[in-house]
Amino acid sequence: MFIYNFLLYVDKFKYYQLFFLFLTLYFEYKNLRKKEKINIYMIQTCLQCIYKINLIDIKFKYT
């Protein structure tokens, strides 16, 4: 639900770019989780840096 609400927030021009970015990060997360200690906050931080948005605010605003 969080991902769906997050994508609704993003405008149409960034939708596909964000979608593929998220898929890439998700599969990287699955691969790295077995080898190294990595958590979802690292991925959220990456998205925040790239898109200059606050994911926590979006989560509470649209859920």
Would you give an account of this structure?
Keywords: Membrane, Transmembrane, Transmembrane helix. The chain crosses the membrane at residues 15-32. The protein has 4 helices and no strands. With 63 residues, the protein is an all-alpha fold. It is flat, with a radius of gyration of 12 Å.
Question: Summed up, what is this model?
Answer:
The mean pLDDT is 60. The chain is mostly helical.
What's the arrangement of secondary structure elements?
Layout: H1 2-9, H2 12-35, H3 40-51, H4 55-61
Q: What sort of overall outline do the alpha carbons produce when their principal axes are compared?
A: flat
Query: What is the arithmetic mean of pLDDT?
Result: 60
Overall tally of structural domains: 1
Low-confidence stretches: none
Sketch the major β-sheet.
none
Structural class determined from secondary elements: mainly alpha
Number of helices: 4
The N- and C-terminal alpha carbons lie at a distance of 8 Å
Count of individual beta strands: 0
Instruction: Give the SSE string.
Output: HHHH
Task: Evaluate the radius of gyration.
Answer: 12 Å
What percentage of residues falls in helices of 4 or more residues? over 70%
Report the β-strand fraction as a percent range.
under 5%
Descriptive key words:
single chain; 63 residues; mainly alpha; transmembrane; transmembrane helix; membrane
